[in-house]
Each structure stands twice: as structure tokens, then as C-alpha cells.
Amino acid sequence: MQNRFDDQVVLITGAGSGLGQAAAIQVAKEGASLSLVDLNQEALDETKAKIQEVAPSAEVLVIKADVSNEDEVKKYVNQTVETFKQIDGFFNNAGIEGKQNLTQDYGSDEFEKVVNINLNGVFYGMKYVLEVMKTQGTGSIVNTASVGGIRGVGNQSGYAASKHGVVGLTKNSGIEYGQYGVSIKAIAPGAIMTPMVEGSLKQIDPDNWEKIGEQFVEPNPMKRFGKPEEVGYLVAFLLSNQANFINASVIPIDGGQSYQY
């Protein structure tokens, strides 16, 4: 039986852990060749090893790169094309949360750092991948936004601003590139238990972060954290040809957390 990603190449940023790693494993199981990008080489190697356990025949390229550096983004796109000759799917996922603080106390350097990675990095990735996909006449891009991109998030000005920007870029670019056979959408994860979310909880209370986590998800209709692999399943669908007509859209995956918005 043919897999959804047979003969397709999927590029993933932030592939060293969390949502990026989960999506990489899922699309590899379904036949994709992969180009994996992260700033952490050890994390990339770990993801590659996990892929080889479940999909031994998958071709996997790993590239250490800083998504906030436009030259490095251009290089990871070029290296992917040089290796595989195409990019069929792009999970534009790398991001950070940043420090938590009231807006008036939020450091300007911290704000700039978060925006440079979460928003500029997404823009740079789209800029160079769209050039490839437009020429191909086909492709699918999934950007990682957040429930923090469709509502406010207290004490996280940089994160909320950057993720709102990702939503705007997604909708705008989807309008522009649908005519070229490229579909662009964003996911808006809620509380998914990733290393980034764990780090966020530890910022609040490093000694009792698990208890803080229980309190955090209590208002959620499903009253639990999501799992990275649950997001991986959604990303795989959105990157596949089955989701080509989903464009300029933002899809929450949050257990109902954003229901009131």
C-alpha cells in the first residue's frame, strides 16, 4: 500500500525535540525523505536515530542552523534542494517561548530575540521555500503558531506578538500562493507537554512545576496536556495531498482551550 509521503521530501525546523520531532517521526513512517533543521546538533542526531528505529529506509538529512539568521535559512533551503531536488512539505516550526514578565518589565533584548526566532525565522523560511514551491507548482507549508496567536497570553508579550504575526503571515501568504498550487496553513497548539512547555512551568515554580501544570490544564475541557504525537498526526495530514484545499487557515489543537475565543 502506498504511503502518503512516498517520493516526497519534507523539511522541518525545530526538529530536535517536541512537535518537530514528533512530526518528523510520523511523516518518516509514511514514506517521506526528510531534511531536519535545528540549532542543537545533538538533538538533531537524536531525532534521526529515532526515525531510523521506526523507518530504517528513510533518507534523513540533518542541518544545524539558526532560523533567525537569514543567510543560514537560505543555506538550509539550498542544501535541501541540492540533496533531494525538491521540497514538497515544510513544517516551519522552530520557536521559543522566552522569559515571562509583565509588558512594562519585559526586556527589549528578550522581545527582539523571541520575535527574531518565532516570527522572522518563520518569514525567512517561507520566503525561500516558497520560491522553490512556486517553481514546482506544488507544495504545502504548515507554520507553528499557538493559541497565543489567537488570544492573549499574560506575561508573554514577545511570544504572543510573534505568534500573532505568524497567523498574519500564514493568512496573507495563503492568499498570495494558492494560485501557484501551494497551500499554507498554521496550527495553533495549546498546552502540549513538550520541553518548551515544561520549561515554561519551571519558570513559574521550578520545585512544583508538575503541580502548576495540573492547575494550568484544569480549565481545559479535556483537563490534560496534549501529546506531541497528537500534533504530529495533525501536521502529517496538513502536509499531505489530502489537505491541499485547506489554505490561509489556522487550526487549533488545544483540547478546546480556545473555545471561548
Description:
Pfam families: adh_short_C2. It comes from Alkalibacillus salilacus. InterPro entries: NAD(P)-bd_dom_sf, SDR_fam. Belongs to the short-chain dehydrogenases/reductases (SDR) family. With 261 residues, the protein is α/β, with parallel strands linked by helices. It folds into two domains: 9-190 and 228-252, NAD(P)-binding Rossmann-like Domain (Rossmann fold, 3-Layer(aba) Sandwich); 193-225, no CATH class. It has helices at 18-29, 41-54, 70-84, 108-136, 157-177, 195-204, 209-217, 228-239; strands spanning 9-13, 33-38, 60-64, 89-92, 139-144, 182-189, 249-253. Helix 1 crosses helix 8, helix 3 packs parallel to helix 4 (108-136) and helix 4 (108-136) runs parallel beside helix 5 (157-177). It starts with 8 loop residues before the first strand and ends in an 8-residue tail after the last strand.
* Outline: globular
Q: How many separate helices?
A: 8
CATH topology of the largest domain: Rossmann fold
CATH class of the largest domain: Alpha Beta
> Which strand order do you get reading across the main beta sheet?
3-2-1-4-5-6-7
Along the chain, the helix and strand elements come as EHEHEHEHEHEHHHE
- Taking pLDDT < 50 over at least 5 consecutive residues as the criterion, the unreliable ranges are none
Gyration radius over CA: 17 Å
What's the CATH architecture of the largest domain? 3-Layer(aba) Sandwich
How many discrete domains? 2
The CA-CA distance between the termini, in Å, is: 41 Å
CATH superfamily of the largest domain: NAD(P)-binding Rossmann-like Domain
The beta-strand count equals 7
Q: Given the helix and strand composition, which structural class is it?
A: alpha/beta
Keywords: Oxidoreductase
Protein name: NAD(P)-dependent dehydrogenase (Short-subunit alcohol dehydrogenase family)
Family: Belongs to the short-chain dehydrogenases/reductases (SDR) family.
Pfam families: adh_short_C2
